[in-house]
Amino acid sequence: MKKLIAALCMAAMLVGSALAAGSPSAAGGVEIIDGYLAVKENDNNDAKTALADAVKANVGDNQETLLVDVYKVGEPEKPYTATFKIAAAAGKKVTVLHWNGSAWDVDGTADADKDGVFKYSFKTEDLSPVTFVFEKTAEAGTKDDSSKASDNGSKAAAADGSKSDKTGEPAVMAVVALVAMLSVAGMVVSAKKEN
């Protein structure tokens, strides 16, 4: 019986670690659904400070920006290519800006489909930080309404349990953690019964 419980614990840990390994593929409203690249939150203050002026100069006013770090997983072929999903950019032209260490450069553009999915090949080999820029969607004719609508949409997605608002991790991780805890509890009870 101990061996069975130990095997169940190990299986739960393996499944949990496999699912957790995929979690960096979604961050800051950007999801990578195919390719040897992943995304995570960006914390480069210099890049954030210079972003508004760069977007206005290179793309225009009334733009939504999603600033993330893109990094390689394994050894992908060049040019680095991935299929991205940005729900807020559905049906829009997406401009990709790259931070070169001191300024933002336009890396290229892509057209997102009705679901916000697009394939993009980076021209730069130094991937991070990257900003995805697209026109804001104005609801009821005001800028403030568009930010509220996108905020409400992300809260609704988190509330339905399908994805975490910040990391994109599926709710199944909670189930895996619960199974692991129950397996450990069962192992403890089993050990006490044998003694």
Provide a short characterization of the protein structure.
The protein has 195 residues and is an alpha+beta fold.
The biggest beta sheet is recorded as: 5 strands, antiparallel
Number of domains: 2
H-E string: HEEEHEEEEEEHH
**What radius of gyration results from the CA coordinates?**
21 Å
Q: What is the tally of beta strands?
A: 9
- N- to C-terminal separation? 14 Å
- Chain-averaged pLDDT: 76
Strand order of the largest sheet: 3-4-9-6-7
Helical region count? 4
> What proportion strand?
25-35%
Task: Explain the overall architecture.
- The protein is α+β, with helices and mostly antiparallel strands and 195 residues long.
- The chain has two domains: 41 residues; 137 residues, no CATH class.
- Helix content is 38%, strand content 28%.
- The chain has four helices and nine strands, in the order αβββαββββββαα.
- The strands form two sheets. It has a five-stranded antiparallel sheet. Strands 1-2-5-8 form a four-stranded antiparallel sheet, with no helix packed on it.
- Helix 1 packs antiparallel against helix 4.
- The protein is elongated.
